[in-house]
Amino acid sequence: MRLFWFSAVLVLSGCRVHTLDDGAYAFLPTEILRDDCALDGTGAIGTATLRTEGNLVTLSLAKPELRLVGTYRFSVEEMTLDGTLTNFEAVLRGRDCLLDTVNLHVDTVTTSASTFSGSMSINYEARQPDECVCKYWFKFDATRQ
């Protein structure tokens, strides 16, 4: 019987309920931190769908089509997520680029049950040409649709 209660406590301790609602969110860039890619706020993200399971979280982006995976930080309403694309095509600095990898990193803070804000870094990497290697970092607000 003790083993049952011990197992139940371990399982339930990882199933924390967070205040941020799951669903579709619209992203609005609020500040460009770095734009080596000459994207200048062209709507790099647009919308995404948030899903949480305990402390695990996924953010499925519509543009580019990618699922970021991450976790909530311990005991706070903040999350961090990462995702990677390979063999991705994009227009960077006015040039068509076939990228080896695109790495996305997101840090967020929940501001209400239907909004969060944070920062996103997108690192574009290619072997050639040099114009296709760049970084686009920005702050954003996201609102549930």
Textual characterization of the structure:
- By secondary structure, the chain is mainly beta.
- The protein has a single domain, classed as Beta Barrel (Lipocalin).
- It has 1 helix and 8 strands; from the N terminus they run αββββββββ.
- Strands 1-2-3-4-5-6-7-8 form an 8-stranded antiparallel beta barrel.
- The radius of gyration is 18 Å and the shape is elongated.
The parts where pLDDT drops under 50 for at least 5 residues are 5-13
Average the pLDDT over all residues and give the rounded result: 88
Strand content: over 45%
CATH class, please? Mainly Beta
How do the strands line up in the largest sheet? 1-2-3-4-5-6-7-8
What structural class do the secondary elements suggest? mainly beta
Query: Would you count the extended β strands for me?
Result: 8
How many domains? 1
Q: CA-to-CA gap between the ends?
A: 46 Å
- For this structure, the CATH topology is Lipocalin
Q: What is the helix tally? A: 1
**Biggest β-sheet description:** 8 strands, antiparallel, barrel
Q: What gross morphology would you assign?
A: elongated
Assembly level: single chain
